[in-house]
Amino acid sequence: TKKIGVLGAGQLGRMLAIAGYPLGQKFGFLGTSHDEPSALLGQMYTDEVESLKDLVKFSDVMTYESENTSVEMVREIARSIPVYPGEKSLYYSQHRGREKGLFDELSIPCAPYQVVDSLENLTQAVDEIGLPAVLKTTTEGYDGKGQFVLKEKSQIDQAWKAIGGRELILEGFIDFSRELSIVAVRNADNEHVYYPLVQNVHHDGILRYTIAPARQISETVQTQAEAYMKALLDKLDHVGVLTLELFETVDGLVANEMAPRVHNSGHWTIEGALTSQFENHVRAITGLPLGDTSPRQPVAAMINIIGETGPVAEVLKMPNAFLHLYDKAERAGRKLGHINLVADSEDALYEQIKQLSAFLPAEDKSES
Ligand code: ATP
Ligand code: MG
Ligand code: MG
Q: Are 309 and 329 part of one and the same domain?
């Protein structure tokens, strides 16, 4: 038995604990309140310096829920107990400029980019990169927050007013056919495992559903994605789950961003794969052999429950559907849970998805 400390107490920590209990692991969480999703699943510490010390005392190993965790804090904790993924993974993942620099270094294709910190810089970057382009904060963005899509030069002032006044990154707009992601895991014994590429569909910047595996992915493309992941895992000495978001384009895969953690696009693995991303993360950080990442069924899907809980009884009545609620209060745009579906064929899967359309955004509003 190992005691695992989690910085954060949201749904990711909650699902790590649910996966870790059968392996005999114990969990402690550092959150901000006792209302958080993980509060009933282990020792709960609330967010103060003294609590962090207590959590370190409790834990054999520490992990975190967010790439926005402070590198200095992780370095400090690592003086007492191992923290996985390590500080390098965090350092690169929490800053879009560093992240893209790493992609370049490892010859992983990504959008042309420029980090800017003034309106003059931005104007110059627009000239060099061209339009359309996406302007983003270098740090702390999630669910598409802190972004501005620039279509014309006349929007530069407006964009700077909207999100400027801090360091930004301008990225060339990638003309993609689909958004994909890949979840990979490495342990300290240098074992590597990869889940199949999945397809992600977003609406208003929020992931709405994932199809796993993504349809019509050639072996070459899967192998390419795994090679990018291997390069990243090894370069970072990464221990735990690492996720890479990718654009599928006519010229091949283009990296968007990575996350040094279990990922929403990997939630399908709970019932959809022989070993879930959560169990594999727990295995990796506690020095256990990694589990088989193969899908259990030919196709699977994950539908996020956003904002309001919705007709969950319908889910419970459906065969091959699995409900996961995070014990969170309803609020617009908030991830409250997800539904996993598994099926023997694509047709059967899409039939199930259709029956659950109440959980998906209306088609007329669907994103460009
Ligand atoms: P997440 O919630 O996944 O962490 P985020 O806020 O970090 O999201 P990104 O993933 O960088 O933001 O961007 C959000 C979405 O915006 C992407 O999923 C994609 O649809 C679109 N997007 C981002 N960058 C580009 C780009 N360079 N070209 C085209 N579309 C982009
Ligand atoms: Mg992100
Ligand atoms: Mg993203």
A: yes
Which pLDDT score, from 0 to 100, does residue 340 have? 98
Q: Give the three-class secondary structure for 250.
A: coil
Q: Is 126 within the bounds of a domain?
A: yes
Kindly list the protein residues whose Cβ atom lies closer than 6 A to any atom of ligand 1. Answer: 111, 134, 141-145, 171, 173-174, 179, 202, 205, 245, 256-257
pLDDT over threshold 80, residue 184: yes
What is the C-alpha separation between 315 and 313, in angstroms, rounded? 5
What pLDDT, in 10s, does the model give residues 61-102? 999 999 999 999 999 999 999 999 999 999 999 999 999 999
Confidence (pLDDT) at 364: 42
Print the domain residue range for 42: 3-83
Cα–Cα distance, 71 to 60 (Å, whole number): 19
User: In a mutational test of the pocket of ligand 1, which residue from 256, 263, 267 has the highest number of ligand atoms less than 8 Å from its CB?
Assistant: 256
Number of the ligand 1 atom closest to the C-alpha atom of 206: 2
Same domain, 314 and 330: yes
Is 233 inside a domain boundary? yes
